[in-house]
DNA sequence: AAATTTGGTTTATATTATAAACTAGTTTAT
DNA sequence: ATAAACTAGTTTATAATATAAACCAAATTT
């Protein structure tokens, strides 16, 4: 039985990654809304995904305010695909 | 976005449940082999699943040794099905 | 110019997972 | 018959992880 990637096998990070899978650059606040996470938790989990190179984080300013955007990397996409395959075989779906 | 049942969204417990989904009564040692877990971890996670009534645990003796068998309950089966549906919608699969 | 809001980050705490240590007994070798 | 080794687990101490509360810097509103 193949092991589930523990970085992806966590609800918030999986929500983030599966959300990012369908779009390009997404703002922090958009993810906040999409995932219903707290800001602190979202910040921490985004950094973990970034550290693993599953997403990239780009910081800028918009209308004078800091603005953080994220998008998935190729590695992130590959790992998600692989995670899904593992799940499918585990669950027979 | 529906929440993933945290009792099932854990690798070992998910392995246990998805293994039990396809069989009837299974012995502790069989699960040990099927999941490659440590005995302690398996014992703990089985108890959690039993506490939630997702599985039942039956203790007996075989050839003088204690023997523990488990099987899934109807609730366990329902919750697994529901977990899979949530995952599918989350991951678009 | 004080109070509030925005857009986050850091960090302390709570939760969870895991493996090491233990229990209780059985079998085997001496 | 008794010590050593093994079976089949459980308990518990520690490690890892998740989460939210507290914080920060700057911008805006009053």
Automatic annotation (TrEMBL), chains A, B:
Organism: Psychroflexus halocasei
This protein's record includes keyword tRNA-binding: no
Pfam family, one: HTH_34
Molecular function via GO: DNA binding
Superkingdom classification of source: Bacteria
Name of the protein in its database record: Winged helix DNA-binding domain-containing protein
InterPro entries: WH-like_DNA-bd_sf, WH_DNA-bd_dom, WH_DNA-bd_sf
Location of the Winged helix DNA-binding domain: 12-90
SUPFAM superfamilies: Winged helix' DNA-binding domain
Membrane-spanning segments: none
Keywords assigned by UniProt, alphabetized: DNA-binding
Gene3D superfamilies found in the cross-reference section: Winged helix-like DNA-binding domain superfamily/Winged helix DNA-binding domain (1.10.10.10)
The keyword Nucleotidyltransferase appears for this protein: no
């Amino acid at each position: 039985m193949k092991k589930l990637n523990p970085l992806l096998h966590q609800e918030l990070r999986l929500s983030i990654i599966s959300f990012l899978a369908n779009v390009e650059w997404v703002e922090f606040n958009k993810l906040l809304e999409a995932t219903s996470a707290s800001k602190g938790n979202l910040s921490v989990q985004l950094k973990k995904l970034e550290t693993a190179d599953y997403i990239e984080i780009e910081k800028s300013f918009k209308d004078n305010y800091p603005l953080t955007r994220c998008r998935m990397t190729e590695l992130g996409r590959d790992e998600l695909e692989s995670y899904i395959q593992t799940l499918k075989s585990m669950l027979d779906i």
